[in-house]
């Protein structure tokens, strides 16, 4: 039986070959630059996809929540890093995980450092997150007083182990000059590394954004890269130049429920609860919530004429259809939608179907 015969409602398809190729390509790039790849699993959130990553030499991973860390800790990683300013209310759960799984957290203030120092019973590593221009979170790169206050608390603790500095230049997602942003990031991490490496000779520096890790070839003396979205990629990454549309490893299969040929519109069962509501807007103000691909036994094919989701609501998706699409489709067919933001689509769908009709786990899925 074809995987297509199993689909009756919106289903997130995963092409294992494309996904593995993406992981291998990034692992090869990290090796070429003498860097360690510590992928961010906030995108895949899957133990099985984690096993695929191990096939390409990945031994440590990054996550965005303690819940995700707990889920993925069943697979004996050398370390799991929570790349989010640590929530001290979760210190008890962190301690439980740390009893059996090496784990590290992100610290950006002395209050959290002190709570961890006072309450932990098991050793935990930590990175100090640095803000070098993004402006979302982190210690400002020149705030040596705060950096050293955090380090002083750790020095007095036998449970907090300083690992290094983490920087997420997230403005690569919306600013066009990625090389300039990376120069800023390289300079910031290099300065901190040289300033503190005498006292902490084992410290490492890590950068963690997919657009930069995908397109840059000059990482300076940064030790580790932690991109996440690269395992699947999406339309946003394609627009940023980090991948081709043929590198996108997931697409949402949606049933066609109505066709309005006179308006060049197709109604599909697939909306915000499936894709989330990330959107690309072109120079004329037109919205794009996902692009149509043709599904077949081997996966999907990108059509010559572009069709896209022009609007979505909770369950509905309205496709602006090309003449090519209108000539091929009928009510009851399945179409594929390449997502704008695969991380959010995967989180919304909570599981994947591979092209052989098997299901792949997701941390938020019903069956784990």
UniProtKB/TrEMBL annotation:
InterPro entries: Ala_racemase_N, D-amino_acid_metab_enzyme, D-ser_dehydrat-like_dom, D-ser_dehydrat-like_sf, PLP-binding_barrel. One of its GO terms (molecular function) is D-serine ammonia-lyase activity. Residues 19-196 form the Alanine racemase N-terminal domain. Belongs to the DSD1 family. Keywords: Lyase. SUPFAM superfamilies: PLP-binding barrel. Residues 249-354 form the D-serine dehydratase-like domain. It comes from Algoriphagus machipongonensis. One of its GO terms (biological process) is D-serine catabolic process. This is D-serine dehydratase-like domain-containing protein.
């Amino acid at each position: 039986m074809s995987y297509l015969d199993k689909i009756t409602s919106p289903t997130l398809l995963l092409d294992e070959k494309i996904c593995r190729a993406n992981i291998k390509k990034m692992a090869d790039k990290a090796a070429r630059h003498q860097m360690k790849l510590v992928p961010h699993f906030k995108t895949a959130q899957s133990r099985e996809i984690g096993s695929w990553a191990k096939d390409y030499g990945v031994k440590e991973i990054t996550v965005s929540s303690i819940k995700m860390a707990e889920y993925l800790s069943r697979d004996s990683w050398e370390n799991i890093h929570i790349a989010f300013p640590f929530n001290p209310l979760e210190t008890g759960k962190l301690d439980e995980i740390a009893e059996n799984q090496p784990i590290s957290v992100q610290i950006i203030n002395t209050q959290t450092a002190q709570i961890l120092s006072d309450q932990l019973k098991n050793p935990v590593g930590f990175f100090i997150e640095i803000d070098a221009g993004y402006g979302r979170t982190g210690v400002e790169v020149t705030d040596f007083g705060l950096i050293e206050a955090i380090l002083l608390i750790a020095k007095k603790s036998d449970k907090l182990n300083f690992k290094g500095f983490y920087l997420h230049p997230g403005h690569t997602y919306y600013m066009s000059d990625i090389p300039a942003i990376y120069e800023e990031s390289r300079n910031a991490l290099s300065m901190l590394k040289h300033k503190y490496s005498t006292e902490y000779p084992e410290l490492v520096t890590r950068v963690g954004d997919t657009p930069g890790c995908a397109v840059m070839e000059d990482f300076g003396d940064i030790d580790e890269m932690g991109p996440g979205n690269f395992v699947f990629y999406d339309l946003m990454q394609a627009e940023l130049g980090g991948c081709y549309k043929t590198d996108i490893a997931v697409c949402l299969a949606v049933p066609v429920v109505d066709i309005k040929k006179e308006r060049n519109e197709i109604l599909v069962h697939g909306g915000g609860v499936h894709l989330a509501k990330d959107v690309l807007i072109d120079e004329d103000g037109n919205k794009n919530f996902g692009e149509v691909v043709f599904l077949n036994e081997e996966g999907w094919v990108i059509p010559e004429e572009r069709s896209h989701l022009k609007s979505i609501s909770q369950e509905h998706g309205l496709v602006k259809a090309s003449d090519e699409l209108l000539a091929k489709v009928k009510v009851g067919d399945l179409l594929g939608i390449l997502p704008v933001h695969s991380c959010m689509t995967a989180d919304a769908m909570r599981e994947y179907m591979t092209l052989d009709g098997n299901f792949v786990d997701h941390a938020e899925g019903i069956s784990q």
